[in-house]
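ok so i was messing around last nite and threw this chain in just to see what happens. nothing serious, just curious
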Amino acid sequence: MNILHLIGGNWIRRPLTQRFPDREPPPAEYRGHVTNDAAACVACGICTQVCVSAAIELRPAESSCAWVYDPARCTFCGFCVQYCPVDALRQVSDRGAWAHSPHEQTDTTVIDYPPCAECGKPAMPYSENLVSTAYGERTEELRRRARLCEHCRRQVTAEVMRKTFSVMSDAGRSEGRSHGR
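result:
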């Protein structure tokens, strides 16, 4: 078939696209736009790292973080949903609203940081899953540090290090005395 016959036939025929009231619903396994539950999201950024099409972006600020999703770039692979450590992401089974331009459907979700347990300033949250993945266990000390802002976390870590080195140097001095030095 000649390409000109194909184009001419398409011009003569009426459009085959079904508009909203007449279009069939998507199948049950349809993976549509990604949505974010701001109450569950900890703004860890794993979704941005696994997104193959760079459709998700995090824009951190002082007291919050903007999670920006552009469905025009999304391949709907579902990796972001699969790897989310707190199950804050899901794919809707709807095709979404019709738009004139691709970027009209961009979704921005603001995730407010919880207050620091020490000073009350906004602290970037960490999920229990993220802590256990990073450290292999969930001790009360790790849970406490996960609720601190970066500044307070550094202070607590410095204090723990000072105590540890103090104990180690005291042990070294007493060991040296026991060997007759």
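not much to say yet. The helical segments are 3-12, 46-50, 79-83, 128-135, 140-146, 150-178.
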